[in-house]
Specification:
There is one protein chain. By secondary structure, this protein is mostly beta strands. It folds into two domains: 68 residues, no CATH class; 61 residues, no CATH class. The protein has a five-stranded antiparallel β-sheet with strand order 1-2-5-6-7, with no helix packed on it.
């Protein structure tokens, strides 16, 4: 059985608003295993539909999350994130990006570009002087 499963997501943004959701297409995980007695086990794990709407200007965040076939709406606020910009650079999708580290209990690294003038990013990450192009949590345990 696979240890990990990737889900492709897409970030739409306009002005101070963003929508982060699953990319279109079937991203369900299908596993076929043969047991020691010649039997076959087939499992299909559905990828839940999760959508995050953020309005940076009005400090609004709404998470639409599917759980056991039911849809839940979770309203909240954007949590202020304290970043330390390191100045280290690398190229992502032809954009020169700068490294920033989140100063909290997790080991979170973000790469942002000032060429896209929107201070937002995937999964509610905000607060940098440009678009967050990639987030690495706990040295690769989660990538966005």
């Amino acid at each position: 059985m696979p240890q990990t499963h990737s889900v492709q997501k897409v970030l739409y943004f306009q002005g101070g608003e963003s929508l982060y959701k699953n990319n279109l297409g079937n991203q369900d995980l299908e596993v076929n295993n043969n047991d020691q007695h010649g039997g076959e086990i087939r499992m299909v794990m559905k990828s839940p539909e999760n959508t995050l709407y953020a309005d940076v200007k009005n400090n609004v965040m709404i998470n639409s999350q599917e759980f056991f076939g039911k849809l839940f709406l979770i309203n909240g606020e954007n949590k202020k994130q304290l970043w330390k910009i390191t100045g280290e650079q690398k190229t992502l999708l032809d954009y020169t990006c700068v490294k920033a580290m989140l100063q909290d209990t997790t080991n979170t690294v973000a790469w942002f570009t000032t060429k896209l003038p929107a201070n937002m990013g995937p999964n509610g990450f905000t607060g940098l002087p440009g678009m967050i192009m990639m987030v690495d949590i706990d040295n690769g345990s989660a990538f966005m």
